[in-house]
Amino acid sequence: MENNYDLLKKHFQKETSIEEEKKVNEFKKNNLQEYLLLKQLWWSNMEVKIKDFDSNMAWQNVLAKANKKKTKTISIYTRLRRVAAVAIILIASALTIYVINSKLSPNELIVQTNQSERGNEIVLSDGSKIWLNKNSKITYPETFKGKTRRVSLNGEAYFEIAKNPNKPFIVETDHSEVKVLGTSFNIATDSLQTVTSVATGKVNVKSNYSNSSVNLLPDDMATVSKNALQKSQITNPNYLSWKTGVFHFEDTPLHDVVRDLNTFYNKTIVLKSTNQEQLFSAHFDNTKLEDIIEILEITLNLTILETPNNYEIN
After folding, report:
1. Per-position DSSP letters for 163-177, written without gaps between them
2. Model confidence over 119-143: pLDDT tens digits?
3. Is residue 183 helix, strand or coil?
4. For residue 237, which of 214, 216, 221, 215 has the smallest C-alpha distance?
5. Which of 145, 193, 246, 248 makes an SS bond possible with 225, Cβ 3.0 to 4.6 Å?
């Protein structure tokens, strides 16, 4: 992407066109940690200085790339100069950041991944709680500074946000920006779309592909993709079952039953039956999977084979 930091400057000032935003999203996708560092420093009101700690030659190489002539402390006051300074840090990998008038260490970005555990709980510095689903990743700062509280999500997570009217909480995904003051909601994002479902409070969802946005209230959901931003009502009562283990089925097609159960249990159910439209009604509250399998066999007259890794419905 040409003129990365000029374009990011426009992006942070919300002055980019739709085509420019596409370039920014591509940059963010390939350079997520760099993007978050730039944004964090952009919105920070702190004065920062950068001090050389590596060899003089390494410092000279950094300066040559950044077209800078001074080799001493750089003070950053304007937003543009802050972004340029962070670019030097990222190119060099040979600098340390010291926060002036503070004894705290630099505010580090923390990356949490969850490959296998279901609903791994994370408590942020502001008291907000996040439950991270398996095969998901979230990036957040050690402490929130500046005017917003920003995190980045890949995968699925449930959020309970501590209220702070003066400091909105923002969740960034590849497709959208979700902004709240204090509420609870679920976000599921993948390469194709981001789905935000609200349990309590009010949430604003903005598309990364246009200037369009929607406000959501409890039982509302928004789906953001490259093609559209759509607001609708939550129709699946089990959208949080991956976290709670509570399932409610009311004349639910078998393929939907299997899909929902697979969000919670480690052993996968594989549906090979040709009659996938059989309807099933039941309520389960953290019920053992083997008991559910037995109920399915009896009520729907199914043959279910257990293998070392899954259950197969034939």
Report:
1. P-TTS-EEEE-SSEE
2. 789 999 999 999 999 889 999 999 9
3. coil
4. 221
5. 193
